[in-house]
Amino acid sequence: xxxxxxxxxxxxxxRYQMELIAGHKGWSNSINWILMLEDTAIIQNFGGxxxxxxxxxxxxxxxxxxxxxxxxxxxxxxxxxxxxxxxxKEIPQSIMEYCDENDLPxxxxxxxxxxxxxxxxxxIRIFLQGTAxxxxxxxxxxxxxxxxxxxxxxxxxxxxFDVDGEFRVVIFTAEGLDEMDTVERRRLSYRLQIYLKxxxxxxxxxxxxxxxxLIMNDVSQKDYDEIVExxxxxxxxxxxxxxxxxxxxxxxxxxxxxxxxxxxxxxAVTMARKKKTPIxxxxxxGIHRLLYSVTDTALLKEMGENTLQPLLDYxxxxxxxxxxxxxxxxxxxxxxQAVAEAMFTHRNTVIYRISNIKKLLHCExxxxxxxxxxxxxxxxxSM
Length: 383
What we know:
This protein is α/β, with parallel strands linked by helices. It is elongated, with a radius of gyration of 27 Å. The strands form two sheets. Strands 6, 7, 8, 9, 10 and 11 form a six-stranded mixed sheet that branches. Helix content is 49%, strand content 15%. α6 packs across α7 (221-238). It starts with a helix and ends with a helix. The protein has three domains: 5-113, Udp-n-acetylmuramoylalanyl-d-glutamate--2,6- Diaminopimelate Ligase, Chain: A, domain 1, CATH 3.40.1390; 127-291, Reverse transcriptase/Diguanylate cyclase domain (Alpha-Beta Plaits); 297-381, Arc Repressor Mutant, subunit A (Orthogonal Bundle).
């Protein structure tokens, strides 16, 4: 997940006398770039995950400093470092409270620290970690696409992950994601990563096959739930203009089974987007686990629309509702009275319709096997 605020603080506590004084919940934010700021002009061009550093020259009042942190939150910055002692003697309480409320990591380093050396140090580490992340992404994609060829990925992932342990996959998508240009997509990616809390080097986030993929290794169920539900919740609150949907796969053991978790997460996110549901878990999808895992679209059409074609044709010709009637009939396990009540229709009318439906389908709908075919057809139609 890149060079993070946590990494930076561990490195800098003694070397640069850095202190994290607010926004502690943003400790897992990854840093994409580091910039020196003495005014807010450049913030308009932030794409997300930038770490801002200031001497306070242009933010020497509480009002100016508040404006700075507000803009950094708005543009999804990774955090802020203030070089205290000259222009800013002490960070106002209101600034710290705002950073805490918005999970923006706020750090201080004393005036004696040479910022040029610190920024150079961090920039090198960001670059190196970025290179490592690219290698990790390639290895994970190999594991998804060619699970049998372990030489392509197992050795490369071994230094960073417990390849024999548990893996979980979450896939995120958004309306219009395919139509976004590279810059828009990268900005959305950075925003999602900022909203991912409590995960650093036991996870990997990347864009693949028209979706954003999050892979987590050896994460407890509690942490997993908090991470996934948290990012969906924060995205809905902070980016209401871009509906984001998430699908989670099953837990798998050993990296060789990662492709299973991935395919199941893909099925879940497909259904989530179709149903306009923020998050769906594959293991809770019931019969839809099977249907959304089928990649043969011709087969789905054959079992769905084609199965009900006689009723569809009849309804179109006679302006009737035989398709709806059969759906209620199957739902209520053949109870004429229940169908009549659900459709606000006389019992004898329902009996007449069901009789005609059986003739059109050339099926008496008496056995579980006969009904299952049509029940599946309705499930497929709702996909």
